[in-house]
Design a protein that fits this description.
There is one protein chain. It is built from eleven helices and nine strands. The N terminus is likely disordered. It has one domain: Rossmann fold (3-Layer(aba) Sandwich), CATH 3.40.50. The longest helix is centred in the middle third of the chain and has 23 residues. It is an alpha/beta fold. It starts with a helix and ends with a strand. Strands 1-2-4-3-5-6-7-8-9 form a nine-stranded mixed β-sheet, sandwiched between helices. 45% of the residues are buried. The chain is 34% helix and 22% strand.
Length: 318
């Protein structure tokens, strides 16, 4: 083959985690999981990829005061790239916390909702949802029948959802150990990771994680609730074992960068490239760890991330 033609074919087939099929329309459907053991309903929004073949499943847990309808830019992109994206809503720490309250009462209500009780509800929501997805996947009468490859499941979440993700993906909690870890989860992405609140040594919390983690944060990623600052978010990466861990730090990004729109208290205009970077790196990561995609792995471990990031964004892997 002529060298110029080889170069052209290489360029045309190069891995691009942002590329989408032309004219593709991503659909979503809402469902509710009823956890009979706890008499608790867990709303879901499921973004479905094109086609009918079973595809890997990626879960997303929203932050405090959020809903299953948040972070659409992630759900739609992941589904367009071939994943069944399942967005959970956690009653008790969702928008019911603040909706309808006078402005002066919102922050106190949010702080009350960031409780150990709601943490426990959240970490039990995840296995309840996974259990139900297995049932629906086998049910010939259900719209999700045969659509999900439940052997390849990823977990993700932002803020309180990041705490939830950490808990079900291998974080240890003192004498409880990794009690909340669900072995069905094969990889995790933590948006706005949180260092341990009641322990000074992050390695004691994260040193026994068994699956790959990707962490994403920003140089201005602080929040008024949760006692987390930039330093505590950055403390998670070095505490993880060196077995496929990644960290992105977006320059100038605030806590809301992982949501669809700015949050009250944001101080600077949002950088539109941040969402592109988040989509690109998360998509390549899911492909590498859930699909075993060699091209995605080479992109992720090579110069690919720098091709979408800006000069002051920070990126590391081990």
């Amino acid at each position: 083959m002529h060298p110029l033609l080889t170069l052209l074919l290489t360029a045309l087939t190069a891995y691009d985690p942002l590329a989408l099929p032309p004219g593709l329309a991503v659909t979503h459907t809402d469902f509710t999981v009823h956890d009979a053991k706890r008499n608790r309903d867990i709303p879901l929004r499921v973004y479905l990829p094109a086609g009918a073949d079973p595809q890997p499943v990626v879960l997303f847990s929203h932050g405090l005061g959020g809903t299953k309808e948040g972070s659409v830019f992630l759900g739609e992109h992941w589904a367009a790239r071939g994943y069944v994206a399942v967005f959970l809503q956690h009653p008790g720490s969702d928008d019911s916390v603040w909706r309808g309250l006078p402005p002066a009462e919102v922050m106190p209500a949010m702080k009350r909702a960031a409780s150990a009780q709601n943490f426990m509800l959240r970490v039990k929501d995840v296995p309840a949802v996974l259990d139900q997805l297995v049932v629906w996947n086998r049910d010939a009468a259900h719209p999700l029948h045969g659509r999900m490859n439940m052997e390849h499941v990823g977990m993700s979440g932002h803020s309180f959802g990041g705490v939830t993700t950490q808990a079900v993906s291998g974080q240890s909690f003192g004498r409880l150990g990794a009690r909340y870890t669900d072995p069905r989860i094969k990889a995790a992405i933590v948006f706005s990771p949180s260092g341990p609140r009641y322990r000074s040594d992050p390695k004691a919390s994260f040193g026994q994680v068994k699956i790959p983690w990707m962490l994403m944060t920003g140089t201005k990623d602080t929040a008024p609730i949760g006692d987390q600052d930039v330093a505590s978010r950055l403390a998670v990466f070095p505490a993880l074992p060196e077995c496929g861990k990644y960290e992105l730090v977006l320059d100038g990004a605030e806590h809301s960068v992982f949501t669809d729109r700015a949050l009250p208290g944001d101080r600077a205009p949002r950088n539109p490239n941040h969402h592109r970077v988040i989509q690109a790196l998360s998509t390549a990561y899911w492909a590498a760890v859930l699909r075993g995609d060699d091209a995605a792995r080479q992109w992720l471990d090579g110069d690919g991330p720098r091709g979408v990031m800006e000069p002051k964004d920070r990126w590391q892997r081990k």
